[in-house]
Write a structure and sequence with these properties.
With 219 residues, the chain is α+β, with helices and mostly antiparallel strands. Helix content is 21%, strand content 47%. It has two domains: 41 residues; 169 residues, Lipid/polyisoprenoid-binding, YceI-like (Lipocalin), CATH 2.40.128.
Amino acid sequence: MKKTIILIIAVVLVFLIVKQLQKQDTTTNQNEEVSTETTQEPNDTISETTTLEDGNYTVIESESELNWVGKMGTVKSHTGTFGIQSGDIILVDSSATGEVVIDMNDITSDSDGVNGHLKSDDFFAVETYPTSTFMITGFDGMNLDGELTVKDQTHPISIPVSVTENEGMYALSGSFDFDRSQWDVRYGSTSFFDDLGDKAIDNIVPITFTLTLSKDSQE
């Protein structure tokens, strides 16, 4: 008799445990479904555009960024930014003009010691050349064309770009390889010095940027 009672109690306990585990598994699956639906919800405030409409656009300096990466082979690297002083883009009948002015005194890096060196004559000689400029000569919605002037050296460049819009503000983003040797930035460059060994600094400096634009109202 006692064995029968014990057996019945054991069966009941097993049944209760199984039901509880099934309940927890169901709750977990429901939470996972809710989480998946939440992460897949689209953001309707930002939309991709193919180009900018005709008009006058002003660069919002405080909301824009211009980033660089400098490398010494595989030995070490530094990252930093250039300051944007001002800028504008004018689009009329598929033609583009404008200018972005770069504040070379506002160059920064991830090292205080590097900051001063970059401003010296070894690199950008900012006392002599306090600004650099990018004169815009064309924009087809996919490429921004212009002439980049650094240290009084001017060369044409074409930059692939993309445009996004968010609540009436536009972000023009792109990247390009800045070959510093073409703009007479000589320090540690094998284009100007021999026998640098592992002290050589790469000529190619990857640049990425985002220009935040405000469209001027038409009166």
